[in-house]
TrEMBL record:
<keyword id="KW-0479">Metal-binding</keyword>
<dbReference type="GO" id="GO:0016788">
    <property type="term" value="F:hydrolase activity, acting on ester bonds"/>
</dbReference>
<dbReference type="Pfam" id="PF24827">
    <property type="entry name" value="AstE_AspA_cat"/>
</dbReference>
<keyword id="KW-0378">Hydrolase</keyword>
<protein>
    <submittedName>
        <fullName>Putative deacylase</fullName>
    </submittedName>
</protein>
<keyword id="KW-0862">Zinc</keyword>
<dbReference type="InterPro" id="IPR055438">
    <property type="entry name" value="AstE_AspA_cat"/>
</dbReference>
<feature type="domain" description="Succinylglutamate desuccinylase/Aspartoacylase catalytic">
    <location>
        <begin position="85"/>
        <end position="152"/>
    </location>
</feature>
<dbReference type="InterPro" id="IPR053138">
    <property type="entry name" value="N-alpha-Ac-DABA_deacetylase"/>
</dbReference>
<dbReference type="GO" id="GO:0046872">
    <property type="term" value="F:metal ion binding"/>
</dbReference>
Amino acid sequence: MKNIKINNNFKRIFIVLIILSIFLIGIQAASAATPTVTVEKWGTGGDVTKNSLIKKNIPKSEITTKVIKAAKKGTPVVKFGNGKGKKTLIVSGVHGSELSSQVASMKLINYLSKKKNIKGTIYVIPFVAPKATAKNQRFYNGKNLNSIANKKGSITNKIMLFAKKNKIDAVGDFHCTMPGGNPGKNIIMGTKVPTLKSARMAIGISRLIKQPYRNYLIAGKEYPGALEDVLNLRGIPAVTCEVKTPHGKIASGSITASLRQMLGFLRYNKIIT
Ligand SMILES: [Zn+2]
């Protein structure tokens, strides 16, 4: 009699455990994958929350705290996906005072960390040079990082090497352009030669998000040392996306416009739907 009772209890516990594990597996399959945050120790570290507009506009969350902490030690990299599938890289903050695209990157990171069904791999570098972002400065250590990607040892050259090492298939570099400047409007830019996929991507994103595009003929001609150009010259299709806002400030709608460009870039590359 006693033995039967113990057996029955055991059976019940066993059934409960099975139901519980099926439930947990189900939750895990449906939930978003946790991103990993790493740091490239390039001497670029800084406290981006010292920039009051960055602090005010980025989402407050656990992942944001992680990224801010990482940025104090160097250039933070947030990775979504397991390294398989098509690999994409989103970059912002090549110019430290171009705030809307850096805030948009942080919004994207927060959005993706809750998103299910990311197909492939996404790397996001939200702050290329946190030190320059913290000081709201366009240049890093007095240098325009978007004119020296062709110089060995520069931070943007290191980003190109990072893209090579991680076998990145497409790069989006996100910037801000002054009203009345060049291009002075929201735009997607690519280059035809030698990586035609760059020009095709600019047109594709432009169609998806209904913003204009401009394709240059030869990479490195108009803008030698621009990150996009150097990536295209190395055979990694890249686009430059600009949103209109004064440097060091955030114009109304410019964060949303930049985020739209980033999502368009990911949709074009079939990483998200
Ligand atoms: Zn820029």
